[in-house]
Design brief:
- By secondary structure, the chain is α+β, with helices and mostly antiparallel strands.
- Helices cover 36% and strands 29% of the residues.
- It has eleven helices and 19 strands.
- Strands 1, 2, 8, 9, 10, 11, 17 and 18 form an eight-stranded mixed β-sheet that branches. Strands 6-5-13-14-15-12-16-19 form an eight-stranded mixed β-sheet. A three-stranded antiparallel β-sheet has the order 3-7-4.
- It is globular, with a radius of gyration of 21 Å.
- The structure holds flavin-adenine dinucleotide and 3,4-dihydroxybenzoic acid (DHB).
- Keywords: Monooxygenase, NAD, Oxidoreductase.
- This is 4-hydroxybenzoate 3-monooxygenase.
């Protein structure tokens, strides 16, 4: 392993792997350090929706071959409330934008395979313990690998190490501001070996709480239930999960929810958080290391990918010309997009979930908002534009 590189990339999730791919293509050397093993990173069940801009970025760097072959193109979503469904059509409301259903696990597998095929450095089981010299021109990443302590000297360090990452802690606390919101409910996500009961995703508001029907392939469904914080996923039987899903998706007409064996289950707390700024000296933050959103708007993975694209461009400008103009603009430009996604994710979350003890007044407001989306193409377009993805800034 080299002890010196241009960009030390901490974290081998979507942000770190895409950044590494883009840097490699721009001729900038980097080393990716990932604390987990390859199998864990490739199996970690997370997001499933790619915006048009994310797909475009993956195509442009030659990482979309399998995505183009296997990803499912979706032209809309269904919102359900009061036992009725309403479809939001993305292309007609957004000037032609659409999304892809392609699991984060598959995207991560593709990017890992490409990096290894390039013979470019990517270290698993490499846990970064600290970054020193953040205020100098030569920051150092300290990590442990195979029982040994090692150092990587860098021109820049990219903190792509997720919400609990360590790179952020290299920035003096007084230079950072964190904005946070914790929600009084979690998501219970399950994977089931059953063909999806719908062609497009269903986001359901119900008196029993929120439910989402998504998918991974024509043979595998991905479903989520709003549950109280602290719910033990093992405490539910498969039958209880399917009964609850069926009750929340209930709709007038002949629609049926198909059941099948549940193969994975996990509970995920919902949180919004933003750390500002996203750059300090030669330390750069991208993806969940800088911001997280509740999953209802399907923005987390897409924000991580957009950060990587903008950051790679800025580093390429620095490498080619020595100017830091784009790096200087990185944090402000991304925070504008991040706060837009934060607002949309908060909006989707608070419109569709029932908070514990929620008043009938607040429920009426939610239903009124959903009725408005159904009645007005302008209101529907606002949702569609945000969901399908706004142009990259
Ligand atoms: P991550 O994917 O978290 O990658 C960070 C990487 O850094 C990890 O591989 C981690 O192992 C590594 N790392 C951490 N610390 C260190 C260290 N000290 N040294 C070296 N490596 C380190 N978004 C949606 O849109 N829809 C969803 O349904 C959805 N579900 C989610 C479920 C869960 C449980 C979580 C946590 C997130 C979910 N998200 C979802 C959000 C989405 O998956 C993230 O926004 C996305 O993974 C962000 O990518 P990232 O690369 O920034 O961070
Ligand atoms: C999925 C997750 C989301 O949070 C979402 O809004 C849509 C789809 C998914 O895992 O498929």
């Amino acid at each position: 392993m080299p002890s010196r590189t241009t960009v030390g990339v901490v974290g081998g999730g979507p942000a770190g792997l895409l950044l590494a791919r883009l840097l490699h293509q721009a001729g900038i050397d980097c080393v990716v350090l990932e604390s987990r093993d390859r199998g864990y990173v490739e199996q970690r069940q997370r997001a499933g929706i790619l915006e048009q801009g994310t797909v475009d970025a993956l195509r442009a760097c030659g990482a979309a071959e399998r995505l183009d072959a296997e990803g499912l193109v979706h032209d809309g979503i269904e919102l359900r409330w009061n036992r009725r469904g309403h479809r939001i059509d993305f292309p007609s409301l957004t000037g032609g934008r659409r999304v892809r259903v392609y699991a984060q696990t598959e995207l991560v597998k593709d990017l890992i395979a490409l990096r290894l095929a390039d013979g470019a450095p990517l270290l698993f089981d490499a846990r970064v313990t600290a970054v020193t010299g953040a205020d100098t021109d030569r920051p150092v990443v300290h990590y442990t690998h195979q029982g040994a302590e090692r150092s990587l000297h860098c021109d820049f360090v990219a903190g792509c190490d997720g919400f609990h990452g360590v790179v952020r802690t290299a920035i003096p606390a007084e230079e950072l501001r964190t904005f946070e919101r914790v929600y009084p409910y979690s998501w219970f996500g399950v994977l089931a070996d059953v063909p999806p009961s719908c062609d497009e995703l269903i986001y359901a508001h119900s008196p029993r709480g929120f439910a989402l029907h998504s998918m991974r392939s024509p043979a595998v469904s991905r479903l989520y239930l709003q549950v109280p914080n602290g719910t033990d996923p093992a405490a539910w039987t498969d039958g209880q999960i399917w009964d609850e899903l069926e009750a929340r998706f209930a709709v007038d007409g002949g629609w049926r929810l198909a059941r099948g064996p549940i193969t994975q289950r996990a509970v995920l707390p919902l949180r919004s958080a933003v750390t500002e700024p996203m750059r300090w000296g030669r330390v750069l933050l991208a993806g969940d290391a800088a911001h997280i959103v509740p999953p209802t708007g399907a923005k987390g993975l897409n924000l991580a990918a957009s950060d990587a694209v903008v950051l790679a461009r800025a580093l390429a400008q620095w490498a080619a010309t020595g100017t830091t103009a784009a790096l200087d603009a990185y944090s402000d430009a991304r925070l504008q997009a991040v706060w837009r996604a934060e607002h949309f994710s908060w909006f989707m979350t608070t419109t569709l979930h029932s908070a514990p003890g929620q008043s009938p007044f607040d429920t009426r407001l939610q239903l009124s908002q959903l009725d408005r989306i159904a009645a007005s193409p302008h209101a529907a377009a606002e949702l569609a534009e945000n969901y399908a993805g706004l142009p990259l800034v």
